[in-house]
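A quick aside before the break. I want you to see a complete sequence-to-structure record at least once, exactly as it would be stored in a machine-readable document. Don't worry about memorizing anything.
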Amino acid sequence: MTAPTASTRLTPTGIKLPDGYQSLITFSRDRDVSFWEKTVKPPGLDGGDAIDTTTMHNVLYRTFTSRSLQTMTDAATTVAYDPAVFSQILTNLVNQPGVVTVAYPDGSTLAFYGYLRSFEPNELSEGAQPEASVTITCTNQDPVTGAEEAAVLTSVAGT
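That is the input. The structure line, written in tokens, reads:
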């Protein structure tokens, strides 16, 4: 049996984003939906919970292994909005899969299959701009063919 050996962290390649401005989300089903992004949370990746591989032959430790499949986590945005957005969302976006694109401040884009899962207005109050929370679910599935499809990251030069 071989014990794990330490490794040394190397300097990352690429260029880190210096600022979160200007990040936008585009829905292929309604590219001019009547809301304005104030914050954007791009989707992430989740490998899922570990699989317990412990048996009665283990002596000291419980053992685990990773799962085979990955999940793209939800994307989200906080938006200012026009009340007319309700009819746009009902008609074109809620539970309607299509391509969702997140544009990063450096011009890179992440395109993936997904749909608008929820649009939840915050409380309205005097002296504050009305905002809503939007949640976008990544499906990783072409809505026309049903084929499994990965997200496509398009980087700009220098990243």
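Two observations worth writing down. The first strand starts at residue 24 and ends at 27. Helices lie at 85-93. We'll return to this after the break.
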